[in-house]
Amino acid sequence: MTSDITLFVNPTAGRGRGAAAAQPAARALRAAGFSVRTVLGENAADALRRAREAVAGGTGALIAVGGDGMTSLALQAVAGTPTPLGVVAVGTGNDFAREAGLPVRDPAAAGRLIAESLKGDGGRPVDLGRAGGTYFATVLASGFDSRVNDRGNRMRFPSGRLRYDLAMIAELAALRPVAYRIRLDDGPEQEIEATLVAVGNSSSYGGGMRICAGARMDDGLFDITVVGPCSRSTLLKVFPRVYRGTHLGHPKVTVHRVAKVSLSAAGVTGWADGEPLGPLPLEAETVPGAVRLLGAAEKAA
What mean pLDDT is predicted for residues 250-270? Predict the structure, then answer.
């Protein structure tokens, strides 16, 4: 393995923590004997192009410095290649890093763990989801939760998490069930009404909401969480339980474990790893062992 590795940096992650985090992570990696170069991009497309060039050029690892969005971008460059992925998690949500047992908002510790993994096991294989040609590591959201994302991203004020809190209040006021057509694996297409359908490669999204609490990144399967039609009062009662994962026992919630799912619904956008995938219909499939994740805990792989 080459000792030349690449830091893939989002300087704006975590309100500027991305740029600051790159330095202690790089120092830890250099202290371990690695040669480190940094890749930035003028925008997401340019950053991904540069990351793919680094992978094609034989970099020993691609290290995403930022939040779940930056990790998602890095996945598009390394998935299906021998190049392992490291994560220095300094974003707002950091769901992927937490799921994998990686340090959060401690870039020096993350750098040391990545160096140890590069010199040791070389990373553990973890599964990814793939939908419409895009890989995702956490959860594909559709329905109420994706509508909150849609609305929040249209808002210009306020900033940060408060924007999404207000978007959620607005969507609650307009709450209505979604008419889905859903196919699980190669079974028959079913017509259902649901508040949301979440496709989990791992358990959480939105900074710790364990919507697919039983999902694992090493079993080759999605956990599909379906929240049936419910009133605003029921949703408000169930919502706090999502952080503990205890909502799965509610009678309005069902879970399916499958390797492939197709979803169709009018006026619904799919979001994965906090990024828009595009309007439904979408088909998602698991890709077992799609990436080697540096420093991943045993439970994640």
Answer: 97
The confidence score (pLDDT) of residue 299 equals 57
In this predicted model, which residue has the larger pLDDT, 173 or 74? 74
Residue 289 CB burial class (10 angstroms; 0-12, 13-18, ≥19)? middle
Is 228 in contact with 253 (CB distance < 8 Å)? yes
Average pLDDT of every residue of the chain: 91
Question: 206 Cβ partners below 8 Å, 6+ apart?
Answer: 93, 95, 145, 274
Per DSSP bridges, beta strands 85-89 and 62-66 are parallel
Query: Strands 4-9 and 35-39, how do they pair?
Result: parallel
Asked whether residue 105 falls in the same domain as residue 228, the answer is no
Give the pLDDT confidence score for residue 16 in this predicted structure: 55
Residue 114 and residue 295 in contact, taking contact as beta carbons nearer than 8 Å: yes
CATH number at 104 reads: 3.40.50.10330
Q: What does the pLDDT look like over 11-31, one tens digit per residue?
A: 655 555 557 878 999 999 999
From 56, 91, 122, the end of a domain falls on 122
Q: Which residues contact 113 (CB under 8 A, 6 or more apart)?
A: 102, 103, 294, 295
Burial of 29-56, coded b for 16+ CB within 10 Å and e otherwise, reads beeeebebeebebeeeeebbebbeebbe
> What are the distances in angstroms from CA 132 to CA 39, 230, 259, 293?
26, 30, 15, 23
Tokens representing 180 are 């889905």
Q: Which residue, 102, 104, 23, 133, is CA-closest to 293?
A: 102
Pair (158, 268) in one structural domain: yes
Band (161; pLDDT cuts 50, 70, 90):
low
Q: Are residues 103 and 168 in the same domain?
A: no
Q: What is the pTM of this model?
A: 0.92
Annotate 61-89 with DSSP letters as a single string.
-EEEEESHHHHHHHHHHHTTSS--EEEEE
